[in-house]
């Protein structure tokens, strides 16, 4: 089976990306959850694009492995950060594509997503009236806001959509998340494309901010200078949120946990994927 970049593929198994952050102002550390894989190279993986996306904004990355014990997650979680405002703690989470979809599943505890054709295309964002003053987008320069509104600079690659009408009538979602943009998939389905929680630092994009810089396959990603700035804006915004977090790693513990302990594998043409694999069973003797 070949490594698929379609985010529907691992939907029920894992997140596409949930970047959990945390840390001291001086050394932000972001956890990135691996995706399940059924590959000879390992049971899970992280595209290095996500790692570099976070690192470019001035943070360290710690991989969060899948299928580990509760203790593993609890321990890491505490170092990375607490959970929420509610407890006087600050724990930003960025959900990209499947991460976005997972946000909706976590809220409703059911699967409210519907099929749609959101595969491999770039589009502008159709901003809502709330977008310009949202936490996520109020820092955009006018130029960048206009670019996101008018140009094909946000990359979509999904086969599930959170339909606007479903979102609207699902109180667990509409009471919790402010909608910042809605888009129309290639088959005409209108879906929610960007959200932020009203009272928590949770941010979700059905689109892929990291790919404008880091995906070099034949996919319809926009690599223009302004598209790259969109990507950098989101990374900077999110890592800035992480800088507000009070938790921190002990330095040697961080050295043992940081992604630098792993080497990504280059998958060659035509995908140009550069991938971290974990738990490579075929290497166990
Ligand atoms: C996994 O192990 C096999 C067998 O040693 C090796 O051929 C393969 O390159 C390894 N994969 C990675 C990502 O290291
Ligand atoms: C944006 O993409 C659509 C197809 O998804 C295409 O019809 C349109 O021409 C593109 N716009 C620009 C400015 O490239
Ligand atoms: C990429 O974005 C630029 C604006 O920076 C736009 O001119 C161009 O049409 C977009 N390219 C595609 C393929 O959509
Ligand atoms: C969903 O709710 C928003 C905000 O209340 C509204 O503007 C929009 O028209 C609604 N759309 C649908 C399809 O229900």
How do the helices and strands line up, and which of them pair or pack?
Blueprint: E1 17-20, E2 29-33, E3 35-39, E4 42-47, H1 48-55, E5 60-64, H2 70-80, E6 93-96, H3 98-108, E7 114-123, E8 126-127, H4 142-150, E9 154-161, H5 164-169, H6 171-174, E10 177-184, E11 190-197, E12 202-205, H7 211-214, H8 225-243, H9 251-257, E13 265-266, E14 274-278
Residues 121, 123, 151-152 line the site of one 2-acetamido-2-deoxy-beta-D-glucopyranose.
Active site: 97 (nucleophile), 208, 208 (proton donor)
Enzyme class: hydrolase
Catalytic activity: (6S)-5,6,7,8-tetrahydrofolyl-(gamma-L-Glu)(n) + (n-1) H2O = (6S)-5,6,7,8-tetrahydrofolate + (n-1) L-glutamate
Task: Summarize the structure in words.
By secondary structure, the chain is an alpha+beta fold. It has a single domain (9-278), classed as Rossmann fold (3-Layer(aba) Sandwich). Helices cover 28% and strands 27% of the residues. It is built from 9 helices and 14 strands. It has helices at residues 48-55, 70-80, 98-108, 142-150, 164-169, 171-174, 211-214, 225-243, 251-257, and strands at residues 17-20, 29-33, 35-39, 42-47, 60-64, 93-96, 114-123, 126-127, 154-161, 177-184, 190-197, 202-205, 265-266, 274-278. The chain is globular and about 45 Å long. The two termini are 24 Å apart. The model is unreliable at 1-17 and 19-24 (pLDDT under 50). Residues 1-23 form the signal peptide. It catalyses: (6S)-5,6,7,8-tetrahydrofolyl-(gamma-L-Glu)(n) + (n-1) H2O = (6S)-5,6,7,8-tetrahydrofolate + (n-1) L-glutamate. GO terms for molecular function: gamma-glutamyl-peptidase activity. This is folate gamma-glutamyl hydrolase.
């Amino acid at each position: 089976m070949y490594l698929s970049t379609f985010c529907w593929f691992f939907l029920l198994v894992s997140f596409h990306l949930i970047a959990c952050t945390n840390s001291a102002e001086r050394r932000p550390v972001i956890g990135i959850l691996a995706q399940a894989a059924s590959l000879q190279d390992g049971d899970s993986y992280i595209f290095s694009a996500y790692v570099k996306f976070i690192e470019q904004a001035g943070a360290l990355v710690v991989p969060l492995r899948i299928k580990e014990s509760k203790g593993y997650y609890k321990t890491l979680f505490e170092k990375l950060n607490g959970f929420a405002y509610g407890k006087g703690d600050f724990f930003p989470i960025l959900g990209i594509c499947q991460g976005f979809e997972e946000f909706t599943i976590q809220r409703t505890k059911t699967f409210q997503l519907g099929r749609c054709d959101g595969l491999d295309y770039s589009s502008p964002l159709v901003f809502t009236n709330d977008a310009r003053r949202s936490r996520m987008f109020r820092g955009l320069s006018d130029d960048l806001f206009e670019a996101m509104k008018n140009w094909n600079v946000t990359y979509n690659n999904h086969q599930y959509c959170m339909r606007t009408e479903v979102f609207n009538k699902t109180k667990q979602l509409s009471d919790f998340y402010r909608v910042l943009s809605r888009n129309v998939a290639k088959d005409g389905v209108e879906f929610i494309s960007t959200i932020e929680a009203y009272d928590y630092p949770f941010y979700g994009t059905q689109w892929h901010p990291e790919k404008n810089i880091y995906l070099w396959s034949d996919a319809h990603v926009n690599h223009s200078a302004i598209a790259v700035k969109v990507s950098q804006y989101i990374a900077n915004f999110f890592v800035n949120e992480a800088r507000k977090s009070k938790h921190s790693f002990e330095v040697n513990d961080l050295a043992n946990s940081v992604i630098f302990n792993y080497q990504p594998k280059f998958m060659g043409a035509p995908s140009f994927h550069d991938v971290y694999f974990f738990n490579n069973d075929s290497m166990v003797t």
